[in-house]
């Protein structure tokens, strides 16, 4: 899109005379992913707070507030990360919840 173009010149097929080199850097930022925590009726509130403190580095007050948001609204974004980090966070939360036999669900989606 909008790159300098090479005009075909009948007189110099196969030569590089008319090649325009695009010097603009073409780096793309990697996509970011939201990590979402979902509400359920069984996971204890304190357990959710613990997860937000441990895996998302929130203070107790921040963790409590986000936990209450999930409890009341059904879902909240708990962080935004690269694909690899988001995947790791989701796995950590799901493993920890499973280990403690809580049905807590954590997912990710492209921002
Ligand atoms: N709704 C749960 C309860 O009343 C608490 C809870 C909050 C569960 C957030 C999951 O992601 C969650 N014990």
UniProtKB/TrEMBL annotation:
The UniProt record lists the keyword Acetylation: no
Span of domain Adaptor protein ClpS core: 28-107
GO-annotated biological processes: protein catabolic process; proteolysis
Top-rank taxon, per record: Bacteria
KW Protease (keyword) present: yes
A Pfam match: ClpS
A single MF term (Gene Ontology): peptidase activity
Listed transmembrane segments: none
Keywords, in A-Z order: Hydrolase, Protease
Subunit text: Binds to the N-terminal domain of the chaperone ClpA.
Its biological purpose: Involved in the modulation of the specificity of the ClpAP-mediated ATP-dependent protein degradation.
NCBIfam families, per the entry: PRK00033.1-2, PRK00033.1-5
Family: Belongs to the ClpS family.
Protein's name in the database: ATP-dependent Clp protease adapter protein ClpS
Origin species: Pseudooceanicola sediminis
Gene (name only): clpS
């Amino acid at each position: 899109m909008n790159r300098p173009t090479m005009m075909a010149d009948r007189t110099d097929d196969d030569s590089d005379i008319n090649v325009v080199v695009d010097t603009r850097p073409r780096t793309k930022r990697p996509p970011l992913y939201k990590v979402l925590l979902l509400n359920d009726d069984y996971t204890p509130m304190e357990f959710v707070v613990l997860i937000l403190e441990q895996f998302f580095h929130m203070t107790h007050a921040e963790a409590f507030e986000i936990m209450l948001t999930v409890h009341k609204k059904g879902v909240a974004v708990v962080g935004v990360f690269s694909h690899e980090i988001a995947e790791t966070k989701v796995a950590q939360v799901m493993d920890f919840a499973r280990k403690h036999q809580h049905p807590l669900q954590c997912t990710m989606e492209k921002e």
